[in-house]
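Lab meeting tomorrow. Look over both lines:
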Amino acid sequence: MEILRNIILILHFLCFGALLGTTIAQFKPAKNGSAVISGGMLHSAIGLLLTGAGLVGIIYATGGEPNNLKIGVKLAVLLVIVGLIVFFRKKENVSAVVLGAMSSLLVLNVTLEVIW
């Protein structure tokens, strides 16, 4: 079960990196007014949701007790990110404010995991 947990954790990190990277990559086009929400952002966010749920499921399956408050807060932050992605995905141009909000929320999510 430990190997499965590690694989899911690595996938979780990769999804985080992909989402943060694609978000940061859009800051330069945002100066010209041509930033967009890519399909990769949506896929990475869904990957974060699925792998996060898998990690919590593994904790329960191995008899552990996760910090449900922390998981709930992290889920709420991630759902806000997904909401931003879904809402602005069909827009022709996305402002740097939206990209900054997404990046900040992603960093907040990691900070919650590390510090809490």
About this structure: The mean pLDDT is 96. The chain has five helices and no strands.
